[in-house]
Amino acid sequence: MLISHVVAARTSRIEEAPTPEPHPGQVLVEIVASGVCTSDLSPWLRGPGDGGEPIELGHEISGRVVAVGSSASRWKEGEFVTGLGGPGFATHALLEEDLLLPVPAGIEPAHAIGEPIATLEEAISRTPLSPGARVAIVGLGFMGLGLLQLALARAPRTAIAVDPNPEARERALALGAAVALHPDEVAAFADAAEGAGTADPRADVVLEATGVTPGLATASLLVRPFGTLCVVGYHHAGTAPFDMELWYKGATVVNGFCPDHPRVMRAMRDALAQVASRGFTFAPLITHRFALDGVDAAYELMAQRASGFVKAVIEP
Known about the structure:
The protein is α/β, with parallel strands linked by helices. It contains nine helices and 16 strands.
């Protein structure tokens, strides 16, 4: 098999490795598509360091089962699957069979990578977003645009989208957002009803998908009194200040991260059902595709926040 290793900062190399054999409870999957995730950007940027072991990346996989570890396996050779595991930037990966689900019939494997939408669906499933609510999404990268689709499937009264990038705002409007704002416009938008006797324009539910402190501050402005803020963005390290206005507004804060595999797999099943019914589509979100030798090019686009980029997939 072939696998892409990060061998230095911003530098990957394709290497040959023995193709593993599955044990009971495992399956060997030939990777067809693997998403390039923001959470892996930092290790790609810094590399393994002097004398460090090469880094293996990629955890958003879909592919074809080519071998099973037991005749009692619920999977058969030739089935298309997606799930949790990796490394995905390779021609093959050994995966746990309980962390896999079938790719819906008729869906291109690259449009059915289950892990990223499962994390979004799991977060939104713990957020009280009901029909008729006002919802806002702050941060319109891949995660934010995915959250927008999942939120719209719950029939909100209106959806407000926020991002500094005009391309991202246009994508959100095309996907069904009613209003698209630059972050600098949010304060005036939130204050629009002050003293005017009109309905509060702020959101019942705000989904934060920026992963940076300024995004949290913007999201806090949009939460109405007794509303809910769900923090879905990856705030990896350090501390982020808590906006005490949320406290005084009586707002509920939901941690959108889930470390529990069974919960994520249940959410993945629900999310894939939406993919199968066309309630969610990757088509406008996957903007770039690369072969296995294009891992560095994909991360470079992400690091530069290149125009036209939302998400890349590696197709070995």
